[in-house]
Here is the input.
Amino acid sequence: MSTAINVSAFIPRIDPAIWRLRPDFMALSVVVTHGANGSSPDWVRERLATACAGIPDGPDWAQAHLASWQDAYRAFGAKPQRTPSSAEALRKRGASLPSINAVVDLYNALSIANAVPVGGEDIDAYVGLPFLTLATGDEPFETTKDGAPAIEHPEPGEVVWRDDKGITCRRWNWRQGPRTRITEASRNMWFVIERLEPMPIEMLMKAGDELARDLKKLAPDAVIASQLLQS
Here is the structure.
């Protein structure tokens, strides 16, 4: 996509099968154009460190929310002990989590602090719109293996995010592919914050507001649009 994308038209699609699987699923889509990224300044590094230090203290619904994601994974045949949701994986790493870049560190901190999966993607690497659906098993997933590019395929019925070219994230939010990940060169970005019960909806919206505020701090001229995705 070009830098002249229409943020109001960049609307992720959700397969109705997802809501049959989890009627409580909601997501907040956040589209950013004319953003900025780079190595993390001190305030971003501090935000990540503070989130990691606060893992044992809450929020009070955190463990129940992570358990809901475990149940969601089991519902489509995944084993959450082996392939946990992104939020659970980040919280398990805690203080060992390295700094990657400013934008990724910000959304990782948001994910850890709120025990909620947060994904970040480079819009300019997308072919078409994001689509959350059940895999047929034939879709390509570009990844790396032993340091070299590789192609994997999902299990049939696996929940995946994809675009018109292939899968961008396997097992709902477990593992993102390198093709669309946010780098220091990314300027047009899409974020998705994914919620199940019992995470309060107001906390989902608050997380989106916090993300937008911080992205504006990195890039005051950024254009940001948010949309709640629900059944």
Q: What stands out?
A: DSSP finds six helices and eleven strands in the chain. The first strand starts at residue 13 and ends at 14.
